[in-house]
Amino acid sequence: MDFNLSEEQALIRDSIERFVAENYEFDKRNATVAMEHGFSSAHWQQFAELGWLSIPFAEEHGGFGGGHVDTMVIMHEFGKGLVAEPYLPTVILFGGLLQAGGSQALQADLLPQLIGGQLQGAFAYLERQSRYALSDISTRAVKEGNDWVLNGEKTVVLNAGAAQKIIVAARASGEQTDEAGITLFMVDAGDSGIDATYYRMTDGQEAANLRLTDVKAEAVIGAAGEGFGLMQQVIGDAILAVAANALGAMEALNAQTLEYCKTREQFGVAIGSFQALQHRMVDMFQACENQRSLLFRAVCAADAQSDDAQRSLHALKVMTGKAGRHIGGEAIQLHGGMGMTDELSVGFYVKRLMIINTLFGDMDYHQQKFIDLVNRPPAEAGASARPEAA
Amino acid sequence: MHTRFSEEDIAFRDEVRAFLKKAWLDNTELQAKVGALSTMREGMIEWQKALNAQGWIAPNWPVEHGGTGWSVTQSFIWDSERALAGAPSVMPFGLIMVAPVIIAYGNDAQKAKFLPRILASEDWWCQGYSEPGAGSDLASLKTKAELDGDDYVINGSKIWTTYAQYADWIFCLVRTDNSGRKQEGITFLLIDMKSPGVTVRPIETIDGFHHLNEVFFDNVRVPVENRIGEEGKGWTYAKSLLVHERLSIAEVADSKRGLAEVRELARQEVNGGQPLLNDPLFAKRLTDTEIELMALEYTELRALAAIAEGKEPGPESSLLKLQGTEVQQAVQELRMDAAGYYSQTLQGDLGPDQLGHAFADYAQKQYFRGRASSIYGGSNEVQKNITAKYVLGL
Ligand SMILES: Cc1cc2nc3c(=O)[nH]c(=O)nc-3n(C[C@H](O)[C@H](O)[C@H](O)COP(=O)(O)OP(=O)(O)OC[C@H]3O[C@@H](n4cnc5c(N)ncnc54)[C@H](O)[C@@H]3O)c2cc1C
Fold first, then answer.
1. CATH topology of domain B125-233
2. CB distance A336–B279 less than 8 Å?
3. Which end of chain A has fewer CB atoms surrounding its CB within 10 Å, N or C?
4. How far apart (Å, rounded) are the C-alpha atoms in residues A133 and A156?
């Protein structure tokens, strides 16, 4: 058992820390978010040069061959600095799906471009009615000759504006909520059949609703009709990634709040000397450490493919939402009026945490999944519901 | 003990409903004005003028100055029906905050000058209490007023001044004496925002719209006749105002409407093939909040009934502020949860329907805006300190 980072991982961490210190000071971040698509393409090139875009990909395509811990290190540092570049949609989601289900030829074509920083991607899986149910998909895919043709509407697609390629989850067969029949398709973002409505999320990142009219797919990702398993797998990885990002944001909020309480004076003393506030800050600290523990637990279980992996993943996502809301709310409250302003970064971190709660299922959604999992009768549940260490 | 409505109450309720239908529900033009940032000031003034024409603008004032003389039940009916219709309450700074102070402590000339203009919404008021160094510790305020002939000369700054950018007048706590306890030497002044030397700087906020400001005073001359009561006694007046402010912050009726709105959305939202309303985890949190709100509603009625019997509203107002803002924030959280992944989208320049969800944009705005309610009017921590000290005697 070892909770330390390897030397290589520590190097990655240090280089991101340096990048954040140099490029993500408050005003600089605001300028970056104000750019087209909500991030800096110069930063993205830097990511490519520093090798960060290669981390989760296989060496044969120019990747680093990293695991969940490596991604965790990156996303954690990005969270601390509130980095705006679209690592989640392009590398984790789009790249993850490509690697998990793309043909060898497609991977050989696109992964090097992605790793080199030339290719941005997005994953369109949500629909207006779907809420958090991944299998609730009404966008239709129909085979016409050799082509798959897509029609329907996808919502809140992160990074759709910058992406050249988009992977779309559509239904090739089955009823609207069936897991079977979902297929993942690669489409060109510039296809004339895609009508996009762009907007920003509260943390400044860009998203879009996409209306697809007779859009011809360029490729099928994974086997036709079996997209659901792929989605689940990659979204599992993405949950670990955003939970690490959340941990970074929580740490930053706690550090800022602590600092503020030590320096802000009222009634002739630092407000941090009031016991009522001290206990509140201890609670925030505790919530953050809970998040860290469940993150380590879920990451180790995923890497080991242990029986505890699924349960840990749900537990982690519940805690991410709960601790995020708790810490976010308290950080604003303890800053008083200052916490309501855009003159500090507090609000921006809180918004990132709120978004993360809604990504891939909120805390209620994952708590229900957790309940379903642990309440299965013992025979069915086997070893997976027992809380042994990973 | 009973809470039945009398026949007169029911007749009153019908009268209120008829008024709200005509003045608000059927007046979509006014609703649009109040709802849009650029026309909000104009819309609110128009709405308040309609209330004044009806004689219902100032339920909390004594009848001789233009109050309604309503019973507690009637006030309750008015507020419930107003919120149910989605109509706004009034801007509090003139009608709810400074007017009771002028009525209680102002002289006849001040009453004659200011009260009719407040009733008629001729002046937009703002509240100049907080300073950068004086928030929870309000009494440590430093903005200085020095007597020079018939004028006070004001130097210093106020912060977090809501809607100062729209204001014609600001009521201010200023320091006229530094020698004694910090609560002494504070004076309550009414200052014309058009006076030379007053400048307003906007503060950007996490909810993305402009309501907060910093107000600077650079040798601003204020006639002594604009002083309320005695010099150095401003703290007493200021505290009485805070009690009124806190009573108005509970916003029970608006939380009821908010909760109903969330419930309706949760009925429509589909969650794993079922209405979200049937989700046991969501339903638990929704009904937890509803139960808190039911208690709050009666706590408020008990407080109002006591006031109607002539008791002064006291430290119990802290409890209403606490419970009221906790419920508001719980409703805002539920609204965000109900809106799911749409809850964190920004409308920007898009039309209201283009995001594809009724609560997109709105849910997060309400949430972030609502974080302030546990900070202003004396933070909730300060309310707990007050309750511990003055109610529990700790
Ligand atoms: C949206 C908004 C609108 C406002 N509008 C107005 C306005 O129109 N006019 C006006 O004058 N003011 C206004 N205010 C100011 C408001 O009254 C102050 O923000 C409030 O009094 C808190 O002061 P502060 O911001 O300086 O926080 P601080 O006093 O610095 O407090 C910081 C934190 O410390 C806590 N704290 C402080 N003292 C104690 C203690 N003794 N024990 C335990 N905890 C403590 C607080 O509760 C808070 O959590 C507004 C504020 C906001 C957010």
1. Butyryl-CoA Dehydrogenase, subunit A; domain 2 (2.40.110)
2. no
3. N
4. 14
